[in-house]
Design a protein that fits this description.
The chain is an alpha+beta fold and 147 residues long. 36% of the residues lie in helices and 31% in strands. It is elongated, with a radius of gyration of 21 Å. The termini are far apart.
Length: 147
Amino acid sequence: MTAPHRSLASGFAVVLILLTAACGGSGSHLVEEAPSRFAGMDRRTLNACAGTPTAVEDAAGGTVLHYEMSSARQVDIPRPDPGPGRVGSASDALPPPPSVTYRRNCSARFLVRDGRVVDAAFDGRAAGGEPAPAACEPFVRRCLRGG
């Protein structure tokens, strides 16, 4: 592999690592614990932190509140190292490095009975449909005041 191709491959490897890291982490643990932590929350408190549900439906013995959120994070692809002795005007003339936008979606559902949350479920997904529990972390953190 030639030096420019090796540098480009290294740049893509860094982006892949960053995107992989964005899928997991402490957020998925927080999201796994969230259903039990939301249990008992007053509906008004939920509405105050989560906003207006995207859908509301009657269910046997309660009401299901649906929330849909999406987020995007832009990741710059690192510019290849010009190599030893190649500093200055040649690298300054390069265009800005390309970037990748990574999108994630979170679907949250809450079963409310007698004004209180009795069950909650979270489904975080990356843009390609693969599971990404951490996609729900911002929603959970906002409502649980920092987890």
